[in-house]
Amino acid sequence: MGKRCVVVVVYDPEQQHAKRPRPNDEEAGGALVPYNAAAAAQHVVEDAQPLNAAAAAPEPQLVVEDAQPEPPCLRGHVLHALGLRGDLPMHFIDKKTVTSTDLDAHQNRFRLPSEGVLERLRPLLTLEELHAANLLYDPEPRAKKPKQLQLPAPPETSTSSEKVVKKKKRGRVHGGLPVRMVDLAAGASWELRLSRWESSHGTIVKGEGYLDFIRRCSFKENDHVEIWAFKQHYFRNFGVIMCYDSVLHLFIVKKDSGAPKTCRYCPPPAPAPVDESSELKLLAGPSS
């Protein structure tokens, strides 16, 4: 049999009230703690609410950049005169300053701001319309031509005195997207074409009848204008055709101090009332 150790402990009565070391947290994890209801009542939070009763966070509101008020007379007269619905959505495209080239007869085109075309006008068009306007793909950056060493020109001779006329390089021809321009004073133009040039990557509106329209417009060089776009789509309700497709309309609105307050389609003002007594006095002539 193995040996057993016998430990003899001497009891000391003075150690009964002596301080003992505090047990570790791990050893006291399962210890029972008496509940004091009076002490717990002092720490009750009166404004506590359940989680499902808390107010939901407000939804973030969509901030529309460059939000502008709609042009005057748009829904009251212009849309009705064009044969379009009065509740069409209007899309602000961009602002610009009218340049001399926009009014030049030799240029014969109206240039649109590139930022507004790419960011606001292009999302409104279908794939077919983007292809027609040459806006379906982003243009490739133009490669810089390497610098060439310029040699001195040879002396002129009798045979080389004639000037050689170089042919101007022509870019790719695009049919363009059918559009109509609208102005408060000029009304609507004939059907024009919107297209993007491959040479300068500029988006322009051109076509026969542009010069006649631009001469009747309310804006001139250096005027600040806004460009809006709207288009009517085909809609059918229970077999009944409510409206047909329309071409894209570009509304050019002058924003300077001299902007017109009325449009071409506004009804004429009512004549001022005439005083009948004054007319009778004029007919009767001066009293003797």
UniProtKB/TrEMBL annotation:
One GO term describing the cellular component: nucleus
Keywords, comma-separated and alphabetical? DNA-binding, Nucleus, Transcription, Transcription regulation
Q: What is its main location?
A: nucleus
Q: Name one GO molecular function term.
A: DNA binding
Q: Does the keyword 4Fe-4S apply?
A: no
Q: Where found in the cell?
A: Nucleus
UniProt lists compositionally biased (Low complexity) regions at 148-162
- Locate the region Disordered: 138-169
Q: Identify this protein by name.
A: TF-B3 domain-containing protein
Species per Swiss-Prot/TrEMBL record: Eleusine coracana subsp. coracana
- Encoding gene (name): gb01149
